[in-house]
Amino acid sequence: MASITLGGNLIHTSGELPKVGTKLSDFKLVKSDLSETSLNDFAGTKLVLNIFPSIDTGTCATSVRKFNESASKLVNTKVLCISRDLPFAQKRFCGAEGIENVVNLSDFRDGSFGKTNGLEIIEGKFTGLHSRAIIVVDENGSIVYTEQVPEIANEPNYEAALAVFLN
């Protein structure tokens, strides 16, 4: 399990992020139209997984906005914004903000994405939500970068995550 903080208070996740060099495990997540999507639907595409507790918090919303700005400049790359929010909330936020360059996906049905990837917060006020993390995957499905943000209120390192594809 990973140790992170929420407002400076120590909490833990259900495990560790997958290791760089390994393959990302397949997943089933829910799109805004309530259909399911899986890793196979993104085969041959580079992925930046922006994972966070809820779109309705300031830091999470900022991360979606910042990755939306960057995503339009990336070749053969999709930014997947993943949380346990209902797809309706994700769609409402992106519509209100004019966000069109990211793909919002929800793990609300069973939380299996969070459990499989060691992201589920297991104690404290955010129990059951995902921790803030970035997982970057190349076009072959191999993990090339990860970041478990140590304090949930902090933003991820956008530059480091995107630099993987700019070099």
Could you characterize what this model shows?
The protein is 23% helix and 26% strand. The longest helix has 14 residues, at 58-71. β3 and β4 form a beta hairpin. It has 167 residues and is of the alpha/beta class. It is built from 4 helices and 9 strands; from the N terminus they run βββββαβαβαββα. The model has no long low-confidence stretch (mean pLDDT 87). It has a 5-stranded mixed β-sheet with strand order 7-6-5-8-9. The chain has a two-stranded antiparallel ribbon with strand order 1-2.
In short:
The protein is 23% helix and 26% strand. The protein is an alpha/beta fold and 167 residues long.
Furnish the topology, listing elements before pairings.
Elements (H helix, E strand, L loop, with lengths): L2 E4 L2 E4 L15 E3 L5 E3 L7 E6 L6 H14 L5 E7 L3 H11 L4 E5 L5 H5 L16 E5 L5 E6 L9 H9 L1
Parallel strand pairs: 5-6, 6-7
Antiparallel strand pairs: 1-2, 3-4, 5-8, 8-9
Key terms:
alpha/beta, five-stranded mixed beta sheet, 4 helices, 9 strands
Q: Approximately how much helix is present in the residues?
A: 10-25%
SSE string, helices as H and strands as E: EEEEEHEHEHEEH
Q: Radius of gyration in whole Å, from Cα?
A: 14 Å
The general outline is globular
Helix and strand content put the structural class at alpha/beta
Give the amount of beta strand, in percent. 25-35%
Unreliable stretches covering 5 or more consecutive residues: none
Number of strands: 9
Major pleated sheet: 5 strands, mixed
Overall residue-averaged pLDDT value: 87
Number of helices: 4
> N-to-C terminal Cα separation, in Å?
32 Å
Q: Which sequence of strands runs across the widest sheet?
A: 7-6-5-8-9
